[in-house]
Amino acid sequence: MGDIQEFSDLKFQGIKINYLYICKRKLWLFSKNITFENRSDKVLLGKVLHEYSYPKEKTKEVLIDNLIMIDILSDGSIREVKYSSKMKEADIMQVMYYLYYLKQKGIHKQGIINYPKEKRKEVLELTPDYEEKIQQALREIEEITAKSIPPPAQKQKICKSCAYFEFCWG
Amino acid sequence: MQKTLYITSNGRLRRHENTLYFESGEEKRAVDIENIEQIHIFGEVDLNTKALNYISQYGIILHFYNYYGFYSGSFLPRKKNVSGEVVVRQALHYLERKKRLFLAYCFVESAVYHMMRNLRERKEAESFLTAIEDEWEKGRFAISSVAELMGLEGRIRNIYYQSFNQFLPDDFAIEKREKRPPTNPINALISFGNSLIYSHTLSQIYQTQLDPTISFLHEPSEKRFSLSLDISEIFKPLIIDTLIFKLLNNHKITLEHFDEDLNYCYLNQDGRKIFIKELQTKLETTVRHRQLNRNVSYKGFIKLECYKLIKHFISDQVYSPLKAWW
Questions:
Q1: Cα B104 to the center of its chain, rounded Å
Q2: Domain coordinates of chain A in residue numbers?
């Protein structure tokens, strides 16, 4: 029962799990609606990719509980489409979170991450290890976003291509 | 870079299918709507809700100017970047006297710095530069209210404008700065330039989570988007004044570019075109940013100022205003 209780308390958009693994500062800013994605070329590229990949799939962009957005939904699996595999760990955790979320609702699926530009895919299965990791991640998101001050900027390689680059370093 | 469109002629903005056109007489020009950030309208332009709805889909801001080239208002599409958190904290910095004074001081400090920067290279203005320095050093530590700060800034600006007479053509002598309405060419130029920088600043603020109505140096009740006035203080001497010096000293703008109407003096259409073109070139000019290690345009620097304010409000980094280092 403990699990279910916690699940109903801690529910976030999938992108927050993704950000937790990319940059905690980005996660904090995003949680306060301080976003700069709308004018970023990289974000636009991602959008276009989502729109034009897999045109034959019918169930695209399925929003569940007004909270998590599944890119492509089919009988046995959920699929997430990503522009590049540079941040693979974050992508994996995002999909694992979706699988975990669906499992709480009694739905069991397989996860697939498609990197259409690289012609690669990752097939994922939710394991008890990952379930624990997800629960930990949810607690961590809760902790970070509850803070009144954002985590300080820390320079990483990926900063350069981030929509927040000028915000953090300018 | 997101582009700015200026419309100086008369005509009509029209949406036809999924293209926006500007039609003027026989001419019909498609507008590159994907890459436009703001449109400044000086001419007599007709548009309907169909066009407005389409424009707002792309988050494009329209700035309108009246017959005399004075700013009349803006059409702002539904704001996408809204953060309650930022607005609440921005308001907090207005309400706490010390916090407000700090920010107001920062804006003036940067404005004065850029005024002095404009005079530094000019031998003719040396005594004025010294006078400004004296006034600033004497006054700045004694300030205990925003009103006093405004007073000090006003005194410095007076000396600053007087110095213009030393290096601008005689046709453009400045007796005193007058705003409503400007009655001579130099005041008309300053007013025109300032209203342009005001609307450009508003465009940048609007793309961030800042609330343009909560300001620190100017009273929020003074003008609708008074934060735009605050931030403009930094960029008026840095962008507009240097532009005016250049245009006048190179005789690109002369007395023939002005019309006079009873008590008014204003730039005519040709004059406006020259001014706008030069301003746009300036706004797109880039400077190497030392922290970002990237080229940043003058327009980009306005946006960076907005970012720094947000960081200040969320207690991330204390605001330190721009002081042009190049």
A1: 17
A2: 4-169
